[in-house]
Amino acid sequence: MRVELGECQVKVAVIGCGTMGRTHAAEWKRMPGIRLAGVCDAQEGAARSLAGRLETEAYEDFDRMIGEADPDIVDICLPTHLHKEFIFRAARSGKHVICEKPIALSADEAEEAAAECRKHGVRLFIGHVVRFFPSYADIRRKAAEGTIGTPAVLHAKRMGANPGLAKPWYANSDRSGGVILDLMIHDIDFAQSLFGGAVSVYAMNRREGNTDYALATLRFGSGEIAHLEAYWGFPGPFTTGVELAGTGGVLRFNSEDAVSLRVFKAKEAAAGSGVAAAVPVPKSPSTYNPYYLELAHFADCVRTGREPEVTAEDACSALRTSLAVIESARTGRPVKLQDAREGENRHVYR
Fold it and tell me: What's the rounded Cα separation, in Å, for the pair 111 and 323?
């Protein structure tokens, strides 16, 4: 079945009315050319509350929502262990699919979900939203422009409160994948968007009480390295940071800084000084938040048929690498990604 969109507004339905579902639904509601056709949640109160606030229809039953709202796109904002089931159900209903990351809990489930969407002629988009954060997008763009020469080493961190304290399913690694699959995967995807598919990983993971901490080193096909840190249980505000070092300088961002991005570019030293100047270049924040940018991009891809910033294969690759990180942390040994292909080792700066 091939889905064609008419000239009318694109209709979107959201399933899952938790934090992420509320975030997505609010962005859809204010987006030109989009009609939020309904929201669905097994907890009727959650669906009715969100629907009332956004002036749309509330549903408890997914199939009823599909039949009555007849959306063009289904946006899946459910716990990770439910992703595959509802990707299948949406695809079999002939609906394009947007699904929060990660795509699934296992590589097999991810490949099956992608294949099911191809079978029914619908698009599959996975919400690796960090690609749409202005500072991270700036880093990728400047790397591609050659601002820091040849990028070689990435350091990235992501830390915040443990979501398992509020929602128990996060604390169950069989349902969430823990801090690696739910949080570090953001930076794994970002690293692979720079360097291509990782070829090996080495990691540690410490869980104690309400703390879930992971540290991983990824190696890439042309010798690049990424050092990634993720932490549930951080006592301060949610914090992210990234630093990309190349042969000609450094790109750096930290959420604790007031500016979006600083560029420290290596320059020719003045004669006799022996010192290379470092010049910070601030960037203005985006008018729209990253979730709006991400969803608007996916909707545009549905309308136009163009390739998305994050492909289903990108999402599958990020999942495979994340699972390798989990395996390395479990065994205490490096893990090679046997399916890291030559074609995955593309570089934005070439």
Answer: 14
